[in-house]
Amino acid sequence: MALQSLLQQGGPVMVVLFGMSIVGLAIVLFKIVQFAKLSLNSRGFIDTSLELLEAGKTKEAKAALAGQKHPVARVMESALDAGLDPLMDRESTDAEVGRIGSREVQNMESLLRGLSTIANLSPLLGLLGTVLGMIEAFMDMEGAGAKVDPSVLSGGIWEALLTTAVGLAIAIPSMGAYLFFEGVVDRAKGLMKDSAVRVLGLCRQQQSWKKNVAEVKQRGV
């Protein structure tokens, strides 16, 4: 069935559904490209930077994070800078790391709400188109009186049901894509939290160690 014929038979609702399908596809393609650029499957840098930090090689740990596009790297950088800053207390450090983490999560979640909206609204719009089509078909049947042609009635019904089928065809892959992307974001959020806690723990150990060394030197003097 040609696209033009499909739009004509489905009516205005079909035009709206077609527009939503284009927007949904654009969002899916955008998120695929965005997540690919962020290299979300690359996680080796986490252990590398943590090992360098544990060995006291702070500059090397920062360098290992600086070359990464993964959002976890940005959170770890924030945790490293804040954790080693003697002027920042625990509360300020946690707030700063949380701020950077929220920013990265918002970036990953951008447009996902739009995809969820399309997945939820498209079957309802399809049902609306079907109801309007059925109303029109029965109005035509009433106007025909005793000269009702069953083929005309059945044709009007299947044309009405067409919008429901199209709405479901848009909703199912849209919801599947939304759930997939949401899962990717959730895994990244968990990795952010775990990595930030580990970095802050190592930073606080170093700060505590430096403080103890300074106290020993002061007593020795």
From TrEMBL:
It holds the Pfam family MotA_ExbB. The chain crosses the membrane at residues 12-33, 111-135, 155-181. GO terms for cellular component: plasma membrane. Residues 69-189 form the MotA/TolQ/ExbB proton channel domain. The keyword Cell membrane applies. GO terms for biological process: protein import. Keywords: Cell membrane, Membrane, Protein transport, Transmembrane, Transmembrane helix, Transport. The keyword Cell membrane applies. It is a multi-pass membrane protein. Its main location: membrane. It is found in: Cell membrane; Membrane. Belongs to the exbB/tolQ family. This is MotA/TolQ/ExbB proton channel family protein. It comes from Eiseniibacteriota bacterium. The lineage of its organism: Bacteria, Candidatus Eiseniibacteriota.
